[in-house]
Amino acid sequence: MEYGKSFYDHFMHPLERNGLADARRYLIPKAKGHVLEIGPGSGINLRYYLFDQIDSLSLFDQRIQPTIASFSFPETLPLVQTIGTVESLPYEDDSFDTVIACLVFCSVPDAQKGLKEIQRVLKPGGSYLFIEHILSDGPVLASAMQLITPIWKQIAKGCHLNRRTDQRIDELELIPIETHYFMRRSFVWGIANK
Hints:
Blueprint: H1 3-27, E1 33-38, E2 54-61, H2 66-69, E3 79-83, E4 96-102, H3 111-121, E5 122-133, H4 139-155, H5 165-170, E6 175-182, E7 187-193
Parallel strand pairs: 1-2, 1-4, 2-3, 4-5
Antiparallel strand pairs: 5-7, 6-7
């Protein structure tokens, strides 16, 4: 089994059972129109899409995993898979009705630049759907997260447990529609519109 998928399954499966899957079930069906998913990873979000409300789906990642290639997409769905980095998206301004990023910005070297790219490619009135883990505001958990981040980055492909991606999202020129915190405020999910 591929390292990325086995790592995800091993460490994240309990978190999926304790809130992440519920957030995905709520958010992903809201995707509509021309959709960009950044960092689809093993394709865990694909089962939640309502493909009849999607005009096209663009999957953007540093690499496309075999699990995505084996997914049964509708034959009529225009599907584009692109490899690159989120800090430099290869799309025109105002290209997408929906942009999705789940558990992505913990590992992006310049998270703020990547988030601004999302804002750039999102059409006016479009929606950014997100799930991110963040530094908890609980002092004990936050201290533990700060302590293990240097080691965690080495074993989890650059993942920073101690980022406040929620604050970076708030700095964008987007309108927050919903924001929800869970797992002792160490995860955030929500919707922001352009």
